[in-house]
Amino acid sequence: MSYTSDLVDSATETKEQLVSNLRRVVSDAEDLLAATAGQTDSKITELRARAKENLLVAREKLADADAAMRARARQAAAVTDEYVHDNPWSSIGAAAALGILIGVLLGRR
Q: Is the pTM higher than 0.85?
């Protein structure tokens, strides 16, 4: 695997963690709504209705964002793979330059 593929995988993993955390928040909010189901105060009933509606919208957007993120990651990996195969020496040179830059920066510490 190339360095760029590793970066794409790392970014995808970070985004997947974010999506997972957001799903957990939505789930906790749904649990909170269920726990307050017995409350009949008009203000609480109104807030519960708005929260339910917002949770539905959040769930839909979360699913859309997850699908879009996965598609972009696959596309970036495919483009990177194609570029590396078409330009192997340029890729080797760029990786070497990046390695030297990282080495110099770490050497300063």
A: no
Phi–psi pair at 64, nearest 5 degrees = -65, -45
Could you state, in order of their start, the residue ranges of all structural domains in the chain?
3-107
Is residue 47 exposed (0-12), middle (13-18) or buried (19+ Cβ within 10 Å)? middle
Looking at this protein, which amino acid is placed at residue 26? Answer: V
Is 39 in contact with 45 (CB distance < 8 Å)? yes
Q: How many CB atoms lie within 10 A of CB 85?
A: 9
Q: Model confidence over 19-64: pLDDT tens digits?
A: 777 777 777 777 777 777 777 777 777 777 777 787 788 778 878 8
Closest listed residue to residue 8, CA positions, set 88, 97, 92, 84: 84
